[in-house]
Design goal:
Glyco_trans_14; glycosyltransferase activity; 3-stranded antiparallel β-sheet; BC10-like; 4-stranded mixed β-sheet; binds 2-acetamido-2-deoxy-beta-D-glucopyranose; membrane
Length: about 375
């Protein structure tokens, strides 16, 4: 009787689902060994019965992540800590010239930073569009799309490469192609290497949070991510080495966020996965704020404001430097300056370069 219930409860729904989505496969469950799922091709003469008893072979990402999760948690004590600047883009880095000036401010280049770039390998990209960074594209890049977990995968790939590439990488900064620096390299370096905490915006009870939690179906996130565990925040964060390791090692929470959404309009997994994971695993190790300024004054299809070339000037830079982040749901006495800002259009590079040396990368003009 028990076996019959098992067959009814387990086999029937499975058989219906599998037959519907993959009509060439017939599913049966071995009654004597109910834990094994037997998949049998309808062309019996060619394909032997296949019993799935072990997980499928790892794809490249899983190997990469697994390797990266084994790196040392602390940078070597004798060498200087480095910043890992990780750009997530599709085809180019139109603002590369200002980043080049920024990085050129450090004389001992390779001693203090590394650059990593994730692109869409299916799109055409010319080395010239990356300036001096074209050789920094990571090899395992894959396409990444909005409203899907692929943007999270891309960030995890960047973290894994940066962890494996240099044991001195201490802070891991995720940037978009529309981001600029707001201070000199020196200022940025000192601010970040002096911190023992990650900077990641973590917000509770934001408007619409429940629909975002339930975007993959009402029960999909349970039991690993309960509604009360769910957090929202900017996808642009700065992680310590310990947290970079934590992210690439995470299988459990990722398995929940790595599911397709049933609703697109509430599906922004990259704004949910990182704040939720960090909040669940190490809330004390985080400053609940992003250091990348963004202007939400005019939201267009959930995209923030892009500064027009005519808006780019000394006044704007001063305004962005004097702004202070939102710290989670309040509390605390920190007043960190923003280190980066978005969104700047490719056409903005010319007015940006006009004020780069004198203002943007000049600490004497600090407000
Ligand atoms: C099924 O088997 C027949 C006979 O061996 C073969 O000709 C045919 O290509 C096979 N079909 C599939 C889908 O494998
Ligand atoms: C940055 O430094 C490199 C190497 O010294 C040099 O080739 C390049 O022209 C510099 N770029 C800028 C924008 O000053
Ligand atoms: C950056 O800091 C180093 C060491 O503190 C100093 O030697 C260098 O002159 C500074 N560079 C700039 C451009 O301020
Ligand atoms: C930096 O700003 C100060 C104050 O405005 C100015 O005197 C100095 O010339 C600027 N430095 C550069 C390199 O432009």
């Amino acid at each position: 009787m028990l076996a019959l219930y098992f067959i009814l409860l387990v086999c029937v729904p499975l058989a219906i689902v599998m037959t519907f989505t993959a009509p060439r496969l017939a599913i049966t469950v071995a009654v004597t060994q109910p834990a094994f799922l037997v998949i049998q091709n309808s062309n019996k003469t060619l394909t032997p019965r296949q019993v799935i008893t072990s997980p499928p072979p790892l794809d490249h990402d899983e190997l990469l992540l697994r390797q990266a999760s084994k790196v040392g948690p602390n940078p070597p004590p004798k060498s200087p800590k480095k910043l890992a600047f990780m750009f997530l883009t599709t085809t180019s880095l139109p603002l590369a010239p200002i980043w080049e000036l920024f990085f050129n401010q450090t004389s001992d280049h390779k001693l203090l930073y590394n650059v990593y770039i994730h692109v869409d390998p299916t799109q055409k990209h010319e080395p010239g569009l990356f300036g001096m960074f074209h050789n920094r594209i990571i090899p395992s890049s894959k396409p990444a799309y909005r409203h899907t977990p692929t943007l999270i995968s891309a960030a995890r790939r960047l973290l894994a490469h940066a962890l494996l590439d240099d044991p001195s990488n201490y802070m891991f900064i995720l940037l978009s192609p529309s981001c600029i620096p707001l201070h000199s390299f020196n200022f940025t370096y000192k601010s970040l290497v002096s911190s023992t905490k990650s900077f990641v915006e973590i917000l509770k009870d934001e408007p619409g949070w429940y629909d975002r939690w339930a975007a993959r179906g009402r029960y999909t996130m349970l039991p690993e991510v309960r509604p009360e565990d769910f957090r929202i925040g900017s996808q642009f964060w700065t992680f310590t080495r310990a947290h970079a390791r934590m992210v690439v090692s995470d299988v459990k929470i990722w398995s929940k966020f790595n599911k397709p959404c049933v609703r697109k309009d509430t599906c922004y997994p990259e704004e949910h996965y990182f704040p939720t994971l960090l909040h669940m695993r190490d809330p004390q190790g985080c400053v609940y704020a992003t250091l990348t300024h963004v202007d939400w004054r005019s939201v267009n299809d959930c995209h923030p404001w892009t500064y027009k070339p005519l808006e780019v000037g000394v006044g704007l830079i001063q305004k962005l430097r004097s702004a202070r982040p939102r710290y989670g749901n309040g509390g605390g006495t920190r007043k960190d300056p923003f280190l980066f800002a978005r969104k700047f259009s490719p056409a903005g590079i010319s007015p940006l370069m006009n004020i780069a040396r004198n203002v943007i990368l000049n600490d004497s003009t600090l407000v």
